[in-house]
Structures are given as C-alpha cells and as structure tokens.
Amino acid sequence: PTRRSSDLAMLAIQQHRDRRMAEQLLDAPEPALLLAGAFHVRRDLGVPLHLKDIAGADESLVLILAEAGKPVTAAEADFVWYTAAQPAQDHCAKMRR
C-alpha cells in the first residue's frame, strides 16, 4: 500500500518532536526524566535514537506502558509495565479528510 502524503507529514512531525525533546533532555539538569507516548520513547524509533545521534548518548533507560497482549521487544524498551487492554482507536482519523 502507498502512504498518503498526510501520513508522511505526520511521520515528519513526530520525528521533529522527538528530535526537539532529545535536545531539551540534553539541555536539562541531570538526572532528567521524559514522560511521553510509547512511540516517542521507543529506543528504536523515538527520542533515545535522537539522543544517540546528537550526543552519542546511549545511557538512557526506557520504560514503556503497554497493553496486555502487545509484545514489546528489548530493542524498543528496557522495561515494560503492562496495563489492561483498551478498544482500538485511530487517533489520526479526525485529521484525515
């Protein structure tokens, strides 16, 4: 399937936000803590990837909150806190026309 331009725009926005959060964490007093959505904190996609790119920082620990039944790999997080499953929702559906 082809990606819609709106999907690509949302991806670019998420990557920009992740990069900005990484910059802010690097400027914050230590120790610093980031509370953000699972995709923003994922080690393989989000802020930790940008921390490594910007400063070579690979010391962060990632805790992801995940719904029961949804696997989280070691590449994504160091720790997982499982919560009860919720009905699926497309949070971007309202923005698509």
Q: Any chance you could write out the topology, listing elements then pairs?
A:
Blueprint: H1 5-27, H2 38-41, H3 47-55, E1 63-67, E2 79-83
Parallel strand pairs: 1-2
Helix pairs in contact: 1-3
Radius of gyration: 15 Å
The sequence of SSEs as H and E is: HHHEE
The assigned structural class equals alpha+beta
- Spatial sequence of strands, sheet with the most strands: 1-2
Largest sheet: 2 strands, parallel
Counting copies of identical and different chains, the oligomeric state is single chain
Q: Helix count?
A: 3
Report the β-strand fraction as a percent range.
5-15%
User: How many beta strands in the DSSP annotation?
Assistant: 2
Shape: globular
Measured between the Cα atoms of the first and last residue, the distance is: 18 Å
What is the average of the pLDDT values?
A: 91
Descriptive terms for the model:
two-stranded parallel sheet; alpha+beta; 3 helices; 97 residues; globular
